[in-house]
Amino acid sequence: MVTTNFATLPDGFQYLSLFDQALALCAGYTDIRTRLTVPITLYVNGNAFSANCNGQTAKAGSDTNNGLSVATPFLTLQHAFNVVQNFYDAAGFAVTIQLTDAVAGSAGAANYTGNLAGPLVGPGSQIGIIVQGNVSSSTNVNVTAPNGTNGISANDYATLFLRNLQINDAGSATSAIFTVEFAIIDVQGVTFGSFNNAANVLHANKYGVINLNTAGNTIAGGGSNSFMFAEFGGIIQARGQTIAIPTAVAFTTFAIGQNCGQFLGFTSSTFTGLGVAGTTGIRAALSTGATLSTNPASPVSINSVFPGNANATMTGFANDDFGDPQTNSILAITGIGYPVGVGAGSTITQITSKSTAVTLNTPSGEITMNNAALSATTIVSFSMTNTSIAGSDIMVLNHVSGGTPGSYTLNAQCASGGATINVRNNTAGTLSEAIVLGYVIIKGAIT
Predict the structure, then answer these.
(1) Contacts of 232 (CB under 8 A, 6+ apart)
(2) Residue 295 CB neighbour total at 10 angstroms
(3) pTM, entire model
(4) How many CB atoms lie within 10 A of CB 426?
(5) Are the CB atoms for 59 and 72 separated by under 8 Å?
(6) CB of 161 within 8 A of CB of 130?
(7) pLDDT at residue 73 is higher than 60
(8) What percent of the chain has pLDDT over 70?
(9) Residue 282: beta bridge partners?
(10) In the chain, domain spans
(11) Which of 177, 341, 375, 410 minimizes the number of CB atoms within 10 Å of its CB?
(12) Any bridge partners for residue 145, and if so which?
């Protein structure tokens, strides 16, 4: 006779060892979970043959296996998701799903698609699941996004980490990665291959979040409607990361935001590689309250953020935090200009002489000129380095304080990365005054 003690937690599930599970099933219990006491790795081999698994050899996959070793791997990623959610209490421990190598377009790559529906059971369930590819060569582990649906997706507060793999399009996939309803997918070391007929490579919908985490993510192919699509409060963020584009790619629009979709951290991120300059398509299209959020201390224009060869469009109260005009509607609630107290302005004092160059990289601010003598009816010019200025911009100048009001004429010519500022003494006598010039940059265009 065998006696088993059951530990019932508030959610009503029974948490047993594998041996006790068998006993419990015989006793009529049907909803039983194994509670983890250490991190666990499950293995998936989507191939019908043995394959490399980060230096080990995994046998052919089968969803009748237990997935606990390379000798008994599952066949599909979706089955691995289901097993973790239905039969494990993570208890705050990491759950890793290790994928074997699979060739793009193969049956194995098709078996690596799936949807994580909801968080894991147990305390610390927000830790989520890590899906791990090949740590030495991410392009050896391929995921083929099927036609008419998504490659890897998550919903209902699920948390998923994708590491060291490549995602491609079977021909007309909906997206490579899709999140919805507060789910989070964190992406690191992932290569995005060809998506010639896909709608979007990344799609964050209804408060879903996609996080491009650290260096190592690569855009190796294009062709889809967009690389990024955020809508209905969905968020796609990078926050200071480097995203590689080794060869030129083409998207209809690189980034699409609508219905309060948000792009965060891209103004401090970098698209790098030989393909950036040759990438084609509209840089971004923001509408109906979508936002490109910038660092208010160093705001930049949306057209300097995303790759492409056509300027961005903004309609319906979209915002890039910089003041770029929308194409069909502008709402001025408290005046037009830069927000007060958020770092869009700064000050500098000119040294040595009135012709000494200054550097101030903000779109508005004040320049205190040197008090050197300026002869009657004479013009002095000095250069200003400012990375927020483009050649088509307009600099508005005003004599705001210091010196004799009405005695000066001010003018500026903008160029890429700076401007030349001209100051004329309009009086009949010499003036030796440290006048303060206030300025604002207005973004302009000539095409």
Answers:
(1) 205, 206, 207, 259, 260, 261
(2) 14
(3) 0.68
(4) 13
(5) yes
(6) yes
(7) yes
(8) 84
(9) 253, 310
(10) 14-315, 345-442
(11) 341
(12) 169
CB 353 within 8 A of CB 417: no
Q: What is the mean pLDDT of the chain?
A: 84
3-state secondary structure the chain: CCCCCCCECCCCCEECCHHHHHHHHHCCCCCEEEECCCCEEEEECCCCCCEEECCEEECCCCCCCCCCCCCCCECCHHHHHHHHHHHEECCCCCEEEEECCECCCCHHHHCCCEEEECCCECCCHHHCEEEECCCCCHHHEEEEECCCCEEEEEECCCEEEEEEEEEEECCCCCEEEEEECCCEEEEEEEEECCCCCCCEEEEEECCCEEEECCCCEEECCCCCCEEEEEECCCEEECCCCEEECCCCCEEEEEEEEECCCEEECHHHCEEECCCCCCCEEEEEEEECCCEEECCCCCCCCHHHCCCCCECCEEECCCECCCCCCCCCCCCCCCCCCCCCCCCCEEEEECCCCCCCCEECCCCEEEEECCCCCECCCCEEEEEEECCCCCCCCEEEEEEEECCCCCCEEEEEEEECCEEEEEEEECCCCCECCCCEEEEEEECCCCC
Rounded to whole angstroms, the Cα distance separating 321 from 47 reads 48
Locate tokens 């791997």: which residue? 73
* Residues 268-309: tens digit of each pLDDT: 788 999 999 999 999 999 988 888 875 555 556 778 889 999
Q: What is the mean pLDDT of residues 185-193?
A: 94
The pLDDT assigned to 3 comes to 28
**pLDDT at 334 (0 to 100):** 34
Residue 427 corresponds to which amino acid?
T
- Pick the closest to residue 162 from 217, 85, 242, 108 (CA basis): 217
Q: What pLDDT does 22 receive?
A: 59
Contact status, residue 267 vs residue 295, Cβ threshold 8 Å: yes
Per the CB < 8 A criterion, the answer to whether 176 and 154 are in contact is no
Residue 367, judged by CB atoms within 10 A of its CB (0-12, 13-18, 19+), counts as: buried
Mean pLDDT of 394-408: 92
Specify which residues 162 forms β-bridges with.
131, 187
Cβ-contact 371, 352 below 8 angstroms: no
CA atoms of 260 and 270, how far apart (whole Å): 24
Structural contact between residues 58 and 85, judged by C-beta atoms closer than 8 angstroms: no
